[in-house]
Each structure stands twice: as structure tokens, then as C-alpha cells.
Design brief:
Length: about 425
């Protein structure tokens, strides 16, 4: 057990170190709005099955999407899972195209069984990511004179959730709860350059919102057998609209170099604009999974009411209600076979999302497909690899289309606790 823990800690440190170095990139231009690009929490299995999770109930896999699933963990079993993903994105506008690469940590989760009725989990999951770098050219005309500006819009940060969850089961019915502490910084910067004959200026604007507070998610699942051969689990989760404490500050500076060749520099503003709340929406999801000895199928539907949230008492015009549907299937020839290939889990799935971003009269769509494979080992560890391709946005209405390709890597570790060793 100690050797496994050492490997886990070393792996986490390596992931965080590499992640910190890999965050200088274009990211998604749509992360400029709201709390940023909403991140989907994945289990290892769901990375190859369209992202389904609400109705998944697997004894050796942690599913923080639905906290009711923790109660299925066997007694005296400790679980740990973590993962990361590599992303390649092609960005397209009407007459231009650019590519970028990214690396992100998916999540870090642990879980254990207290007794046959009670399961527990804790860990860290991403909530949102702000990461964009946009360059524009603008002009302003006054009479016969026209000034040309180069503007750069930069975003950094995002929100993270640290959670503690519990679930209880009785006669096939399970109920669970996640208590999460959400924290993070949303940093949006604008750099504006003007360079004309005999005159130049630079204006720097920085908006910084620091957010932290608690949020609660409730989950339920019910499991039963159908025709004595099919194990069916139906599940749902719910989050009420939540106020997160937030502090917004603004910094503005200006540098002017007129024809006299004297540089003038000034800090126009450096102050706290407001202390208030950033609201997280009412959100819910329903789903189910059906499993036989060789096959598993699952379906999810999720919705978040972003249309009525307030950011510092104002309603963001760029946000709207979001929804998604996803489906996936898995095939395992014989999980108990001594032959390696027969024990592999083969997966495929797809998803369609109406995102929470509404721009230029268009709600941004996001859809894609994925395939995956689960590789069990004789040590109780499972390695999950998923391949995903999808499209977000459109080049219509002066918007950006993002074609992305993702490799998800997830590892599940299992160990037995409180087992008395015998010596002969």
C-alpha cells in the first residue's frame, strides 16, 4: 500500500508540474464569457462513452457526477483515480485558421466504503477554465481623421471544486450528497495600442474576480434486475441555484507618447469595484445504464438554467440555458478470462450540447464522438484511454469555430484495507 501511495503522490506532482508549464496557449475563445468554459467531470469509463455518468454505478470506479454512486464501493476497498487530457484545437474564422495544443488535469478522486450501507468520496474537480488570447484591429473616425487600434484580449484562471461526499444504500435505492468548496480567479485583460505619426498610446485594463463559496449536489440511484439477466440503474442529480461570494477589482493604466517626445504614464484606476455574488445555476441531470455480462449501454440528459443567473447584480447577456444529451456503449468479451484481449473493455459514444454561450443571436453548439478502451491489470488497476473529436461554434455571424481532438488518459487504483495477513 505504501509503495502505491508513493507512486500516486509522485504522479500527481508530475501532472501538476507539467500542467503549469502547458497553460500558455490560445484556449477557447468562448471561455471569455460567464465563469469560463464549463468543464465536464469524467470517470475513466465515460471518456470513451460520450461522457455518460448519471446512471453509472460501478463498484471499482469513482463517479463524482452522481454522489449516490459511492455506496456501491465494496467493503474494505480503497479507490483512487486521476486523469489528464491532451487537446489539439483548430480555430477557424471566416478567412483565417490557426491551431493550438493544450494539456489539462481532469480530476483527482478517492473513495472508500465505511460499511455495506455507506460509501464516502473526496477529491478535486475542475469547474471552469478561462484561457483565451484574441487579437483584433479596430479604427475610430472623427471627421477626416481615422485612428487605428490594435487590441489584445487575454483571459486566465478558472474555478475549481474540492468536494466531500457520502452515500447510503438500502434495498437497491441509494441517496448521496456532495458538499463542494468552489474557488478560483477569473482574470480578463485588455491591451490597446495606438501608433500614429507623431503620437502613440498604450492602455491596459485588468478585471479580476475572486470567487469562493460552498455548493451542494444531491444524487439518487435505483438498481434492479430486468429479466434476471440485465442489471438496470436509473439515476438523477440536482443542484439548486447558489450564490458564490465574489470580489471584483479593476486596474487601468495608460502610457502616452505625444509629438513632444515626452512619455506620460498614469494609473487611472486601481480599486475594488464591488463585493457581491456570482451565481451558479440550478442544474439537474437524469440518466440510466443497462448491463449484461458482456454489454453495457447508457444515456444521459443534463440541463443548467444559466438564463436567470446574476453576476454582481447584473444579468450577463451572453449566457443562456444549456442542455446536453450523451450516449455510450461498452463491450467486454469475457471479464474473467485468462486471455488479455478478452478482458479489454471496448467503448464508443457521442454527445450533443447546447452550451450556455449566446452570441450574435446564436447559441453555441458543441458535439462530437469518442471511442475508448479499458485495460485491466492483475494488480487491480485499470487504465482507461479515450479518443474524442468534436466541433464547437461556427464561422457564421462573425463567430469562431473550434474543431478539437482529445486524448483522455485515466488510471484507477484499487487496494484492500484492514485485511489480516496470515503466515504459515
Amino acid at each position: 500500500m505504501q509503495n502505491k501511495i508513493s507512486i500516486i503522490i509522485a504522479g500527481i506532482l508530475l501532472i501538476f508540474t507539467f500542467n503549469a508549464k502547458a497553460q500558455v496557449n490560445l484556449g477557447s475563445s468562448y471561455s471569455r464569457f460567464g465563469i469560463g468554459e464549463i468543464q465536464t467531470v469524467y470517470t475513466g469509463r465515460s471518456t470513451g462513452m460520450g461522457g455518460i455518468a448519471t446512471g453509472l454505478r460501478m463498484p471499482y470506479e469513482i463517479n463524482p457526477v452522481n454522489p449516490a454512486s459511492y455506496s456501491v464501493i465494496p467493503e474494505k476497498i480503497f479507490l483512487f483515480q486521476t486523469g489528464f487530457k491532451l487537446i489539439k484545437t483548430d480555430y477557424s474564422v471566416t478567412d483565417d485558421k490557426i491551431s493550438d495544443n493544450d494539456f489539462r488535469l481532469n480530476s483527482v478522486n478517492a473513495a472508500l466504503s465505511i460499511n455495506k450501507f455507506w460509501g464516502m468520496s473526496f477529491g478535486m474537480n475542475p469547474v471552469s477554465t478561462v484561457n483565451y488570447n484574441i487579437f483584433t484591429e479596430d479604427s475610430v473616425s472623427v471627421g477626416d481623421y481615422t485612428s487605428h487600434f490594435n487590441n489584445r484580449y487575454i483571459g486566465e484562471g478558472g474555478l475549481t471544486s474540492v468536494y466531500f461526499g457520502n452515500a447510503f444504500v438500502f434495498k437497491g435505492f441509494s441517496a448521496g450528497i456532495n458538499i463542494s468548496y468552489i474557488f478560483g480567479t477569473l482574470l480578463n485583460k485588455v491591451e490597446s495600442f495606438l501608433n500614429e505619426d507623431g503620437y502613440s498610446s498604450f492602455v491596459y485594463v485588468e478585471d479580476n474576480s475572486k470567487i469562493n463559496d460552498f455548493q451542494i449536489r444531491y444524487g439518487i440511484q435505483y438498481t434492479d434486475s430486468l429479466f434476471k439477466k440485465i442489471k438496470v440503474t436509473a439515476g438523477a442529480y440536482f443542484e439548486n441555484k447558489t450564490d458564490l461570494n465574489a470580489v471584483k477589482t479593476k486596474f487601468v493604466s495608460e502610457i502616452i507618447k505625444p509629438a513632444s517626445d515626452i512619455t506620460l504614464s498614469d494609473t487611472v484606476m486601481n480599486d475594488t469595484l464591488s463585493e457581491g455574488v456570482v451565481q451558479m445555476p440550478l442544474a439537474y441531470g437524469v440518466g440510466f445504464s443497462a448491463m449484461t455480462e458482456k454489454w453495457m449501454f447508457g444515456l444521459d440528459y443534463r440541463c443548467s438554467n444559466w438564463d436567470d443567473v446574476l453576476f454582481f447584480e447584473e444579468k450577463p447577456s451572453s449566457l443562456t440555458n444549456s442542455s446536453s444529451v450523451s450516449a455510450g456503449v461498452e463491450f467486454t468479451d469475457n471479464p474473467l478470462s485468462k486471455k488479455f484481449l478478452k478482458r479489454l473493455n471496448w467503448r464508443a459514444g457521442g454527445y450533443y450540447k447546447n452550451t450556455n454561450i449566446f452570441l450574435n443571436g446564436t447559441q453555441i453548439k458543441d458535439y462530437g464522438i469518442n471511442i475508448g478502451i479499458g485495460i485491466p491489470t492483475k494488480f487491480g488497476t485499470k487504465i482507461n484511454i479515450g479518443f474524442e473529436t468534436g466541433k464547437r461554434g461556427t464561422t457564421d455571424d462573425n463567430l469562431v469555430q473550434e474543431n478539437y481532438y482529445v486524448i483522455n488518459f485515466n488510471i484507477n487504483l484499487m487496494d484492500r484495507w484492514f485485511v489480516r495477513r496470515r503466515f504459515f
